[in-house]
Amino acid sequence: MKKTPLIAAPALISVAIIWGAAFVLMKPAIEKQPIFDFLATRFTIAVAVMILVRPSVLKLIRGDILKYGFPLGAILGAGYITQTIALQETTAAITGFLTGLYVVLTPIFAWLAIRQKVARKVWLAVALATAGLALISITGLAIELGQIWGVICAILFAVHIVGLGVWSPGRDAYALTVVQLAAAGVVCWIGALANGYQAPPSEDVWFAVLFTAILATALAFFVQTWAQGIMDASRVAIILTSEVVFAALISVAAGQEVLSLKTVLGGALMVAAMLLVEWPSRKTRAL
Predict the structure, then answer these.
(1) For 146-195, what is each residue's pLDDT tens digit?
(2) Using CA atoms, how far apart are residues 270 and 54, in angstroms rounded to an integer?
(3) Containing domain of residue 33, as a range?
(4) What is the pTM of this model?
(5) Taking 70 as the threshold, does the pLDDT of residue 228 lie above it?
(6) What is the per-residue pLDDT for 244?
(7) For residues 104 and 125, what is the distance between their CA atoms, to the nearest angstrom?
(8) What is the Cα 176 distance to its own chain's centre?
(9) Rounded CA gap, 152 and 83, in Å?
(10) How far is residue 180's CA from residue 217's CA, in Å, rounded to a whole number?
(11) Which residues make beta-bridge pairs with 223?
(12) Quick check: is 286 in a domain?
């Protein structure tokens, strides 16, 4: 049995913390810089960092890498745009919980698109996630607009993952990721240039841009790819699911929000649904 290095789990937890912190940092930043401009800057820097780290990747960007990477990246970019709109309209914690729905939606979409079998536990997870979503989102007879954007984001992320699962096998993962991030950047630049691009206006916004570009995008990709090469995919997913918990905890610690009991209970149900989907069964033990 191949042993997993002790540093793997802490490294993945660090990624989850970074992603959780990114929600909190972005929240005030996008109040000072338009969403499209912020994301365009973020993805441009992230792509530049990845190319600087591995310049030889440019030789691999051709043919199928472009054919499949660009549409996948466009979907990914749309996902980040809707996620950031949700963050602008609601809180960091709720945005994190809603984004995490992609974990539950992915196997459902895989079943619809490519007839991949859905385990019974997934349907239970759907019921738990739906109950959690109802607790978080429904106030009286109304649902907040920001939460609708969050659900759309989760749908786009799930579609992206299904597409990646179909098109990525046999292709260089690093090159495909660079193309996807570049395509996401192009989508964001179209929106940014349409209204006249505005650069980050202050040091705190620049900090949020650099944090999300270098740590939450480029570095997170390095760590996740490395970890998936030495750990079972389900274990990786379970650890990364903690992102939504860290987003809530950091948001509260930073004084951005106070979680209501309804949000805590709804979030707990959604995290339970994510863990239920990703938890390895006896038939799929980690090697």
Answers:
(1) 888 999 999 999 899 888 888 888 888 889 999 999 999 999 999 999 98
(2) 38
(3) 8-280
(4) 0.85
(5) no
(6) 83
(7) 7
(8) 17
(9) 8
(10) 12
(11) none
(12) no
Dihedral in degrees, nearest 10, Cα atoms 267, 73, 110, 114: 170
Beta bridge partners of 258: none
Please write the tens of the pLDDT for every residue from 108-134. Answer: 888 888 777 777 887 888 888 788 877
Tokens 């659900």 -> residue:
151
Residue at 54: amino acid letter:
R
Domain membership of residue 180 (yes or no) is yes
The whole-number pLDDT of residue 84 equals: 95
The pair of structure tokens assigned to 103 is 């974990």
Mean pLDDT over all residues of the chain? 85
Number of domains in the chain: 1
At 69 the pLDDT is: 92
Of 213-222, 265-274, 277-286, the one with minimum mean pLDDT is 277-286
At how many degrees (to 10) do helices 145-167 and 64-89 cross? 160
65 closest CA partner among 162, 157, 181: 181
The structure tokens 């945005």 sit at 95
Give domain status of residue 1, yes or no.
no
Which tokens hold the place of 188?
């964001």
